[in-house]
Specification:
By secondary structure, this protein is α+β, with helices and mostly antiparallel strands. It has helices at 19-33, 39-60, 101-109; strands at 2-4, 7-15, 68-76, 79-86, 112-117, 123-130.
C-alpha cells in the first residue's frame, strides 16, 4: 500500500492472465478490510473485483497475457472506490464469449457503477462501495 497525500490507496498492475484475478482479489480484499469492510460487503467487493479482472482476461486482448490489467483502489468520502482498467480493444461489435452476467452482477453489488471505453484504448470499470461509518 502506498499513500498519495492523505488518500489511502493501492495500485495493482498485473498481466492479463487467469491467475491475476485471485491476486487482485486478495490485495483489494486486504485493503478493504483494513479500512473497515467486513462480512457481506467484503465478499461483494472481492466478487466484483474478481469478475472485473476476469473480464479483462477474457475480453480485452486477443490472447491471454498479451496485455495488462490495473486495479486502483482508494478511499474517497468514506467510500471504497475501485477502478479496473485495461489497454485492450475496448467495446467492439465483434461477438464475445459469455452472457454479460458479470457486468450486471458488478452493478448489483456496488453502490455506484460505470463502465466505459477509455480515450487511450481499452475499458475502465468504476465501482464504489459505501464503507461503515
Amino acid at each position: 500500500m502506498r499513500r498519495v497525500g492523505t488518500i489511502p490507496c493501492v495500485a495493482i498492475h498485473l498481466p492479463a492472465v487467469p491467475a491475476s484475478a485471485a491476486v487482485a482479489r486478495h490485495r483489494t480484499r486486504a485493503f478493504a478490510a483494513g479500512h473497515g469492510a467486513a462480512g457481506e460487503l467484503l465478499g461483494a467487493i472481492a466478487l466484483a473485483v474478481t469478475e472485473a479482472v476476469s473480464n479483462v482476461v477474457r475480453h480485452a486482448y486477443p490472447e491471454p497475457g498479451q496485455g495488462d490489467v490495473q486495479v486502483l483502489v482508494d478511499i474517497e468520502d468514506g467510500d471504497l472506490e475501485v477502478v479496473v482498467l485495461d489497454e485492450g480493444c475496448g467495446f467492439t461489435t465483434r461477438p464475445v464469449r459469455g452472457l454479460g452476467v458479470g457486468l450486471n452482477m458488478m452493478r448489483a453489488v456496488s453502490d455506484a457503477f460505470e463502465v466505459r471505453d477509455r480515450p487511450v484504448g481499452g475499458v475502465e470499470v468504476w465501482m464504489r462501495f459505501a464503507l461503515p461509518a
